[in-house]
Amino acid sequence: MRCRCDRTISDEGGGQDNGGARSNLHERLHGSAKLRRSYHKAQDAAVLPRIQRLMAKRPTYGYRRVTAVLSRELRAEGFAAVNHKRVYRIMKNNNLLLERSGFAHLERSHDCKVVMMRSNLRWCSDGLEFTCWNGEIIRAAFPIDACDRRIIAWRAVVNAGISGSDVRDMMLEAVEKRFNAFRAPGVVELLSDNGSPYTAKDTRIFARQLGLKPCFTPVKSPQSNGMSKAFVKTLKRDYVSVTPLPDAETVLSLIGDRIEDYNEHHPHSGLKWRSPREFITAATETA
């Protein structure tokens, strides 16, 4: 036997998708349901100034990264972490949410394995460029670990291209920093595009002498080096776009600090909203 309520639900399309939750159906049918109001927590007044201070310092951060940084600060002070839904609500109520980009990302099929399960199995390398206010052009290159997302080394030049010599010096610095030696203890893949500084014979030979295995992305497949592309986007969005760029001398003096800030503080969704250094520390403690 079907009751009137069931017929109403079936006729309207069925269940919770169109008719609403069954637990609330009686109130809706009899007009006694109360309008839901925005929820406020008593401690929101104390959290809001912290969020405003973080947004003033890092205006390109969305609510997820704000949550990660805020929770890090609260735990350091002996308090419990804050929930991301609460941060979203507070930021929305105070017009602090970032605007959407306004365009949809194209979907691209990609079956390559980019993220690695352990550090020092694959490093990804790429370059970027940006223009200073006086017209000088900065070009830089870097290797990033495909597991812990740390920028291991970098090179930057002014009004010139990254050369094979720059790439080789960068690789040597990366190996020395990671292993405190002149050769990696195991084979580390070095993934890059097909640019001449990476594909040069001298670079490939030198890489193997360091214990690195040169790997190159397929032609017309930039997503294969997505780890590096993601860092380029982050650096331009969260650092370059909010930093004064009067001239090359000023910019070169700031790049090291910006990369150090990224390694130390930048939360990653792929690292459970931890920074590269936090992730490495946690992995070392559990090893």
UniProtKB/TrEMBL annotation:
One of its GO terms (biological process) is DNA integration. Pfam families: HTH_21, rve. Gene3D superfamilies: Ribonuclease H-like superfamily/Ribonuclease H. SUPFAM superfamilies: Ribonuclease H-like. This is Transposase InsO and inactivated derivatives. Signal peptide: none annotated. GO terms for molecular function: nucleic acid binding. Residues 115-284 form the Integrase catalytic domain. The lineage of its organism: Bacteria, Pseudomonadati, Pseudomonadota, Alphaproteobacteria, Rhodobacterales. InterPro entries: HTH-like_dom, Integrase_cat-core, RNaseH-like_sf, RNaseH_sf, Transpos_IS3.
